[in-house]
Amino acid sequence: MLIVDAIDRNIIRLLRINARMSNTKLAADVGLSPSACLRRIHLLEEAGTIQGYTAVIGGASGEGGIAVIINITLERQTEEHLDRFEAAVRKYPEIRECYLMTGGSDYLLRVEVETAGDFERIHKDILSTLPGVLRIHSSFSIRNVLATRPKRR
Question: Is 73 helix (H, G, I), strand (E, B) or coil?
């Protein structure tokens, strides 16, 4: 088990802001040599603390736009039903995030669409076909108030 210290937390914070920053710049920002910084990044990756890197796609490319938050309630909450639902969700790249929840619904999903018509297709072709779904409740975002990373200006 890797013990994450203040330097590791700083590396993680900076990578969340810009995972493409050079190792030299990252090392300078956290006060390490480039080789020591790279060694820490590799340890964080091997321990599963850093699980991967991704590109955040904006609206200019034709993706993104309106975030839709979807609460899903399943007919049953057995392990078999949860596993079947989760396996099905992983097949659809349109579903950007999926969380198993406590409270009033079983899952929270996030999709991004350009228009209500795009969501209608996702609802009809994907959400309503997921196994074991009892209820689907969707909410459209008005605007993003806080992202997990700073927006570029």
Answer: strand
